[in-house]
């Protein structure tokens, strides 16, 4: 199994503009994956990786439908009961990252926010 990641970013602000683009294909040795869309509240909740032996890429997408930018979901490393934020997603925003070994969790700015989580086994 392989995963291809395409990323591009273009911005223009205050007379400054730039664009970046990258594509990379990673060979995943194991064809395992887990997709879930749990609901989160204001306390950090662990994201289950029980069926994944070696963490690979994770695709995240906020399923929050409101347009208020304060309606965020935070994803990061879980150390005991402490969430160490890595990504903060606004409504509808996606993120793609390679996970290091460890426990992960998410936390919402308010009760009842959903997050799509797809994790590929490396």
Mean pLDDT: 91
- For this structure, what is the CATH class? Mainly Beta
β-strand percent reads: over 45%
The helix/strand order is EEEEEEEEEEE
* CATH architecture level-2 label: Sandwich
The count of domains is 1
CATH fold title: Jelly Rolls
Structural class: mainly beta
Low-confidence stretches: none
Distance N to C terminus = 9 Å
Instruction: Write down the Rg.
Output: 16 Å
Major β-sheet annotation = 5 strands, antiparallel
- Give the helix proportion (percent range): under 10%
Strand segment count: 11
Give the count of helical stretches: 0
C-alpha geometry:
globular
Explain this structure.
- This protein has 122 residues and is mainly beta.
- It has one domain (30-121): Sandwich (Jelly Rolls).
- The chain is 0% helix and 61% strand.
- The protein is built from no helices and eleven strands.
- It has strands at 2-13, 16-27, 33-36, 39-40, 45-47, 55-62, 73-79, 82-89, 94-98, 104-108, 113-121.
- Strands 3, 4, 6, 9 and 11 form a five-stranded antiparallel beta sheet that branches.
- A hairpin with a 2-residue loop joins strand 7 and strand 8 (82-89).
- The radius of gyration is 16 Å and the shape is globular.
Compact description:
This protein is mostly beta strands.
Topology:
Layout: E1 2-13, E2 16-27, E3 33-36, E4 39-40, E5 45-47, E6 55-62, E7 73-79, E8 82-89, E9 94-98, E10 104-108, E11 113-121
Antiparallel strand pairs: 1-2, 3-11, 4-11, 5-10, 6-9, 6-11, 7-8, 7-10
């Amino acid at each position: 199994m392989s995963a291809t990641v395409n990323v591009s970013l273009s911005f223009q602000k205050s007379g400054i503009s730039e664009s970046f683009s990258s594509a990379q294909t990673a060979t995943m040795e194991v064809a395992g994956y887990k997709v879930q869309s749990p609901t989160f509240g204001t306390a950090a909740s662990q994201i289950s990786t029980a069926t994944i032996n070696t963490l690979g890429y994770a695709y995240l997408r906020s399923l929050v439908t409101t347009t208020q930018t304060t309606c965020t979901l935070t994803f990061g490393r879980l150390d005991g009961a402490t969430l160490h934020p890595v990504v903060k997603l606004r409504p509808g925003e996606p993120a793609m990252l390679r996970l290091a070994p460890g426990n992960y969790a998410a936390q919402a700015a308010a009760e009842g926010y959903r997050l799509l989580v797809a994790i590929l086994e490396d």
